[in-house]
Amino acid sequence: MSQFSLVKAKFIEITGRADLADPAAAFDAGFFINEGQKYLDRLFSRGKVEARHFTNLTADQVIVSLQNVRSFKEVWLYDSETRSKLIVTDAATLRGYYSKPTASLDKGPPEYYAPIVIRPFPKDLSASGLNQAWAVEDMKLTTHETYNAILLKPPVDVSGKYTLEVHGTFYTDALSGSTDKSYWTETNELLLIFAAAFMMELSYRNTEGAKDWKNAVLEITEELDKDIVEEQITDISSMEVKVWDTPS
Fold first, then answer.
1. Sheet of 147-153: strands edge to edge?
2. Per the omega criterion (within 30 degrees of 0), is the bond before 120 cis?
3. Predicted confidence band at 229 (pLDDT cuts at 50, 70, 90)?
4. Counting beta carbons within 10 angstroms of the beta carbon of residue 47, is it exposed (0 to 12), middle (13 to 18) or buried (19 or more)?
């Protein structure tokens, strides 16, 4: 287990790059460690790269945008009594079926979702310059760069009633403060250092050095992936379909 400052110190010692200790440098040890962390995140689609995000919905809401999402896996809707799984479809189908402005649609608890493109082009696109401003009501016209989003239909009927759970894969929060920690610093510190060294050698176009570090990373991640798979299949067998008695 280690915090960010200690991981940086060990990275510098292992790589022999004392020049990367300067936090004012354009590319310091912290930069490569964060890039290594993102690289490790991308190697996995299960386990600790998964997360569940919760957000409250407001009336007429049709998009939910989240930062640092790699992929959406499941979406659940909660009200005061029940939890229901939303049906996933593609954005073209959903937009085609609900083809009117949100203001003209029947509202209700959302039943469907679809990952949707929210990046405008050009980047300074404004709804006020369009003949039909509702054309971009399912877009995110500002600060969209680090966001991905899902489209919800039908539009939300009531504010303050629903909570949405998004289950997906997310990038690990970037390390910045000296005492910051992450899953990788806490459980796989040496692997994180290897990944950071790989990203460093890539940036210097050192093909052989990068290959050596990558091989070290993949050797460890292969074993980690086996652990994740075993954990997910342990004692899992086919479940009988049962009709549950209604609780009295």
1. 63-67, 147-153, 112-116, 87-88
2. no
3. low
4. middle
Q: Where are the beta strands (DSSP E) in 179-233?
A: none
Q: By C-alpha distance, which of 236, 82, 194, 100 is closest to 155?
A: 100
- 213 exposed, middle or buried (CB, 10 Å; 0-12, 13-18, 19+)? buried
Under 8 Å CB-to-CB from 142, ≥6 apart: which residues?
none
* The length of the chain, given as a count of residues: 248
pLDDT digits (tens, 9 = 90+) for 106-153: 999 999 999 999 999 999 999 999 999 999 999 999 999 999 999 999
**Are 24 and 199 spatial neighbours (Cβ–Cβ below 8 Å)?**
no
- d(Cα 141, Cα 124) in Å, to the nearest integer? 8
Sign of the four-CA dihedral 247, 163, 88, 228: negative
Report residue 177 as tokens. 């403060």
Query: What is the per-residue pLDDT across 31-57, written as a single tens digit (0 to 9) for each?
Result: 999 999 999 999 999 999 999 999 999
Instruction: Yes or no: say if 45 and 170 are a contact pair by the CB < 8 Å rule.
Output: no
Q: Which long-range contacts (CB under 8 A, 24 or more apart) does 180-185 make?
A: 180/3, 180/4, 181/1, 181/2, 181/3, 181/4, 182/37, 183/48, 184/37, 184/40, 185/1, 185/2, 185/3, 185/4, 185/7
